[in-house]
Design goal:
The structure holds two protein chains of two kinds. Chain A is an all-beta fold. Chain A is 0% helix and 51% strand. The chains are: A mainly beta, B mainly beta.
Chain lengths: 117, 111
Amino acid sequence: KAGVTQTPRYLIKTRGQQVTLSCSPISGHRSVSWYQQTPGQGLQFLFEYFSETQRNKGNFPGRFSGRQFSNSRSEMNVSTLELGDSALYLCASSLDAGPSSGANVLTFGAGSRLTVL
Amino acid sequence: EDQVTQSPEALRLQEGESSSLNCSYTVSGLRGLFWYRQDPGKGPEFLFTLYSAGEEKEKERLKATLTKKESFLHITAPKPEDSATYLCAVQGYNQGGKLIFGQGTELSVKP
């Protein structure tokens, strides 16, 4: 069973540029969530998509956006990059059969390491 | 506000020296508490989900327990391959894929 695939794994950008990261979830998983991981702030929730709709959003500026396609694949975009955007961006997918089925277990990808110069 | 605090930040053990990691949490309506393991350069790997106070789960040398305010990850007779960062996270009801993570405990096990 294939896991969560993120591309690219590493990328370097300069301030002011924009970046698009891609995530292919586990087959059959309808929910895709994005997280930012930095040494200082740890893992922070960016947003979640479920059936092509944004279901949850974290406390990040509007420069961070995302979308989900009909095949559940997701992309996130960061515009006007700042030095502080350097981080590991993690995508996670889950089945999410609803609260009555228990907790929603997330499976994470290996991440996309973004460096902003 | 939902919050997770882990302690200690770092833990160094000798091989075979058992210990525990702590996770204190506050959440309005717990759907689940998660433990993940993260190795350098990799994404978090799922270990356990706990749902209610008094619940315990085991996997090899790891045992996770849950109370109404805390969770503990007990490591019995650790080996060098147990070295990693251990992350605790909570999920509230109606929060879908949103997890609130603690800062993690970096565990180092020396032979």
